[in-house]
Amino acid sequence: MARSAPASKDSSKPNTAVQTTAVAQSLPSDCPPDVEQLGRSTWTLLHSMTAAYPERPTLTQQSETRQFISLFGKMYPCWSCADDFRSWMKEGGNEPRVSNRDEFGRWMCEAHNAVNVKLGKKSFDCDKWEERWRTGWRDGRCG
Ligand code: FAD
After folding, report:
1. Phi, psi of 56 (to 5 degrees)
2. Whole-angstrom Cα distance, residue 45 to residue 51?
3. Fewer CB within 10 Å: C terminus or N terminus of the chain?
4. What is the dotted CATH code of the domain comprising 35-135?
5. pLDDT of 27
6. Whole-model pTM above 0.85?
7. Nearest to 134, CA basis, from 17, 47, 67
8. What's the pLDDT tens digit per position in 10-60?
9. Rounded-to-integer distance, Cα 92 and Cα 129, Å
């Protein structure tokens, strides 16, 4: 479970508090992740999964992808983040769209933007999802 506050003195319990950014920045890199570190790593995984998703997925692949997202929403180890993510998916039009790579990539971008908005961050231009996560930017800086 990602942290949001200083460690409990009870070492038998996992540290479930959320670390503030200021404190987290001073922590060594081999400490348990806080919510921000966990989030960055997780978005990298999720967007990379959309980048690797087939252009023409089989029905089985689509079904397994929906199952993965559903389980992810139950198991993401920041419980309040997971609760909000599941609530967002239940809103009209926000259920996972997985019928092809571009659709899945855009859906993930929209899911990420919902969190960005909640946290007061800038929305990402979802027309650019593939340049950011699959092909690299058109200016060639990604090689
Ligand atoms: P991140 O938001 O982690 O983004 C990483 C990189 O992705 C960015 O640098 C940018 O290049 C790219 N990017 C940004 N937006 C998009 C997009 N829409 N589409 C494609 N690429 C994009 N934190 C909380 O404090 N509270 C929460 O409730 C919460 N809920 C979360 C729910 C989920 C499912 C996940 C995976 C994370 C959640 N987080 C939450 C973590 C939060 O989203 C960020 O990961 C964290 O705040 C670090 O933010 P960041 O600014 O470093 O970049």
Report:
1. -130, 80
2. 10
3. C
4. 1.20.120.310
5. 78
6. yes
7. 47
8. 343 344 333 444 444 667 989 999 999 999 999 999 999 999 999 999 999
9. 22
The C-alpha atoms of residue 105 and residue 109 are separated, in whole angstroms, by: 6
Pocket of ligand 1 contains residue 129 by CB under 6 Å: yes
Whether 15 and 7 have beta carbons less than 8 Å apart is answered as yes
Structure tokens at 59: 């029905």
Q: What is the 12 CA–ligand 1 centroid distance (Å)?
A: 30
Q: By percentage, how much of the chain surpasses pLDDT 90?
A: 80
- Residue pair 17/3 in contact by the 8 Å Cβ criterion: yes
Sequence-distant contacts of 47-50: CB under 8 A, at least 24 apart? 47/105, 47/108, 47/109, 47/112, 47/129, 47/132, 47/133, 48/133, 49/108, 50/101, 50/104, 50/105, 50/107, 50/108, 50/129, 50/133
Would you state the structure tokens that stand for residue 92, as one six-digit string? 């009209």
* 36: Cβ contacts below 8 Å, ≥ 6 apart: 21, 24
Domain ranges of the chain: 35-135
Q: Does residue 84 line the site of ligand 1, with CB under 6 A?
A: yes
Q: What is the pLDDT of residue 1?
A: 67
